[in-house]
Every structure is written in C-alpha cells, then in structure tokens.
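Issue 218. Parser rejects a valid record. Input:
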Amino acid sequence: MRAILLAGLCLSPIAATSVLAQVQQDNPNAANQSMEYNSQMRSLRQEQTTQGNTLQMNMERNQAATPTPNTGPNAIGPIGGGTGVGVGR
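Output the parser choked on:
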C-alpha cells in the first residue's frame, strides 16, 4: 500500500507540470498554441498513416496483378519476351 501511495506522489508533479506547461499564466495564447501544435501533430500522423496505407495497397495490388507461372506438366514457355502485364495497365 505504501509503494502505491509513494508512486502516486512521485507521479503527481509530473502530471502537474505537463498541465502547467500547456497553460502559462503570462501568455494568454498558450492554450491556443498548444492546441494548434497538437492539431498539427495529429495531421502529420494522419498523413503518414495515409501514405503507409497507400503504399501497402499498391504493393498488394502489384503482387495480385503478377501472373503466377504455369509449372504444370503441359507448361509452355513465354512467347515474345513481354513483361506479362496486360494492355491498359
């Protein structure tokens, strides 16, 4: 019980300083600047997530568009030396 109480007392100044850092008494715009900064960080994280998802989708699409080789007993080799990608892609 003492360990929990001691841990709580040690962590409470850390939480209080983060709150005080966001709302400064001498700067009336500190809260607005803090919210603006947090909004910008969320936007950057969203952009990174979107770019990562787009890259993953393109990789999966390219992998799905690659034809599997015919390795059966009646396999015929490629004719002409094309890339194997259909017209219009």
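Fixed in the parser; the record now loads. The helical segments are 2-22, 30-65.
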